[in-house]
TrEMBL record:
Region called Disordered, residue ranges: 1-27
GO molecular function: alcohol-forming long-chain fatty acyl-CoA reductase activity; alcohol-forming very long-chain fatty acyl-CoA reductase activity
SUPFAM superfamilies: NAD(P)-binding Rossmann-fold domains
Annotated Fatty acyl-CoA reductase C-terminal domain residues: 443-504
Alphabetic keyword roster: Lipid biosynthesis, Lipid metabolism, NADP, Oxidoreductase
Lineage: Eukaryota, Metazoa, Ecdysozoa, Arthropoda, Chelicerata
Positions with biased composition (Low complexity): 1-24
Catalytic activity: a long-chain fatty acyl-CoA + 2 NADPH + 2 H(+) = a long-chain primary fatty alcohol + 2 NADP(+) + CoA
All residue ranges annotated as the Thioester reductase (TE) domain in the record: 50-255, 288-350
Designated name of the protein: Fatty acyl-CoA reductase
A GO biological-process term: long-chain fatty-acyl-CoA metabolic process
Length: 585
């Protein structure tokens, strides 16, 4: 462990007063000084709250935090009870059955002892957390990663509002009660403002305040709110992107306003010295350091903890699966448009760095109100930017839909699935109507014929059901295959630069040679440990691991069966060529 000599990352309660034109009565301004500390020290001895910890992103986040920062104190996971299964049992099953935790198991057998499940639900008022757990969270948690969300594109607006927006508000309100609060990271989406062609790293406030939307959803029935939803979306394709934008709106308000605590904290026991006002009759102001990380289409891991790890069919992964099995033959795609993919480990590294940067660097550049008189609390607003990172690949390492097809298809021939329907091949059509005709000929008609044959022989017809799912998925993806955006992604480079700078410029007065050796070792390895430089990514190599990862981790197919599967596929190729030859003759 590397101990920084710069002290705590928390801002001091004192600061140099500055004269400024007051924007509200009784407001004083002060420049908050945050000490620059090393990333390892920032996470040392911290207790972290994670929502969505059992999801794809959450699992990678847990593994990375515990592997890279063994001196983390605790990780609390907000979890729901599921099918009557105890929370600890769910966690044990997750850790035992996932290859992603293999590296962590080898480095620390007892890593699971640092993970504490908290029974709660972001859909419930107060998150459904019992008083005992709530008191422990208030006492211990200092860093929050909010990943929980519903990512279904066809989700009704009212439910998506409850999970994605109101759930975020509830997590924010809980975080404001943490006495050791340091940083809040909200995982959003790069597509929350897809009504704009140029997506910058800033929050776009919605014209209707989120609280107004909550009120409306309370008294309007589901059918009515879904009817007016397109007017609220303003060019966005579904409830997911709109509700994630509303969540950003809420968080940005908290960052702009900070929060005002009536509790005076002591270094001994936070329950001992509590009073409503300080000596001047003012309410204590506390900053709310936060970051919004906006990933694009999240794909399997690039490097950590293992290349190609994936556990879901979301985004382009579903497309890759049905393409590899020969099920998908036609898509509505503008083939020369960019497809923005981001490996999950790059997303996680960005989140980890953003929590550190927001708390120790970014907000040191801001001017915050030191105190606010009780009478003027309701007028406490100021203009400021929340730290936003567009976690995307396009600006540094672009790839088009056509390049994906040209790279992936040969790899699917080389590493085929054990169960394929036809030879992997897909046509891209710029014309929607030509695609519909091709879908009829390549999907619907063959499925109907084969299902008829299945019925005739007393077998269960399945192909029509398969293609219904495929068409739903490709329909949801169509908005992204026929549109293109320009992303600004300067903050990923800033994070990388600041990380290297902090270790390069670190100075220590320690006379311990071992300490200096650890510092030097960290300087040499920190960029590799938390790499977010996508210029190093070679797409051909990445897609090889993508295809193999789907086969091994998602389809649960033994790598030893690749040769047999390849021989079976070659028989399909021969049959296909014979059919074409016979047709021509």
């Amino acid at each position: 462990m590397i101990h920084s000599c710069s002290g705590s990352s928390l801002p001091s309660s004192s600061g140099s007063s500055q004269s400024s034109s007051p924007t509200s009565i009784g407001m004083k301004q002060t420049e908050r000084k945050f000490s620059r500390i090393l990333l390892d020290d920032f996470y040392s001895d911290q207790s972290i709250l994670i929502t969505g910890g059992t999801g794809f992103v959450g699992k990678v986040l847990i593994e990375k935090l515990l592997y890279e920062f063994p001196e983390i104190n605790k990780i609390y996971l907000l979890m729901r009870a599921k099918n009557g299964q105890p929370l600890h049992s769910r966690l044990s099953e997750m850790f035992e059955n996932n290859a992603i935790f293999e590296r962590l198991r080898l480095s620390d057998r007892d890593f699971h002892k640092k993970i504490y499940p908290i029974n709660g639900d972001i859909n419930l008022p107060g998150l459904g957390i019992n008083p005992i757990d709530l008191a422990e969270l208030k006492r211990n948690v200092s860093i929050v990663f909010h990943s929980a969300a519903t990512i279904r594109f066809d989700e009704p607006l009212k439910y998506a509002l409850t999970v994605n927006t109101l759930g975020t508000k509830r997590i924010i309100e809980l975080s404001k009660k943490f006495i050791n609060f340091k940083s809040f990271v909200h995982i959003s989406t790069a597509y929350c403002t897809v009504d704009r062609s140029n997506i910058e790293e800033k929050v776009i406030f919605e014209p209707i305040d989120p609280d107004k939307i909550f009120e409306m959803s309370d008294w309007i029935d589901d059918d009515t709110i879904d009817h007016i939803a397109p007017m609220l979306y303003r060019g966005r394709p579904c409830s997911y992107h709109y509700t994630k934008s509303l969540a950003e709106h809420l968080l940005a308000q908290e960052v702009i306003n900070g929060f005002y605590s009536r509790r005076v904290i002591t270094n001994k026991n936070y329950e001992d010295d509590c009073k409503d006002e300080d000596e001047d009759g003012d309410v204590k102001w506390r900053p709310f350091p936060a970051a919004i990380v906006r990933p694009s289409i999240i794909t399997p891991s690039w490097r950590d903890p293992i290349p190609g790890w994936i556990d879901n069919y979301n985004g382009t992964t579903g497309f890759m699966v049905v393409l590899g099995k020969g099920v998908l033959r036609s898509m509505h795609v503008h083939k020369d448009y960019l497809c923005d993919l981001i490996p999950v480990d790059v997303v996680i590294n960005t989140c980890i760095l953003s929590a550190w940067y927001a708390s120790t660097v970014y907000y040191s550049q801001q001017t915050f109100p030191k105190t606010l008189t009780i009478q003027s609390t309701e007028s406490s607003t100021r203009n400021s930017d929340v730290f936003v990172v567009n976690c995307v690949s396009g600006p540094s390492n672009p790839i088009t839909w056509d390049e994906i097809r040209r790279i992936a298809t040969p790899l699917m021939f080389r590493y085929p699935s054990e169960e394929i329907f036809r030879v992997p091949f897909v046509r891209y059509h710029r014309s929607k109507y030509l695609n519909q005709l091709n879908v009829l000929l390549e999907h619907t008609v063959p499925a109907a014929i084969i299902d008829f044959v299945f019925k005739f022989f007393g077998l269960t017809p399945i192909l029509n059901q398969v293609y219904e799912k495929v068409h739903r998925s490709t329909s949801a993806l169509e908005f992204f295959t026929t549109n293109e955006w320009t992303f600004v992604s300067d903050n990923m480079q800033i994070l990388s630069n600041e990380l290297n700078r902090s270790y390069r410029e670190h100075r220590c007065n320690s006379k311990c040679s071992k300490h200096h050796q650890r510092i030097q070792s960290a300087r040499e390895s920190i960029d590799e440990r938390f790499s977010i430089d996508l210029r190093r990514l070679i797409w051909k190599d990445y897609f090889k691991h993508y295809v193999l990862g789907i086969r091994k981790y998602l389809l649960k197919e033994d790598p030893g069966t690749i040769s047999k599967a390849h021989n079976q596929m070659m028989m399909l190729v021969i049959d296909f060529n014979d059919s074409i030859l016979s047709f021509r003759i």
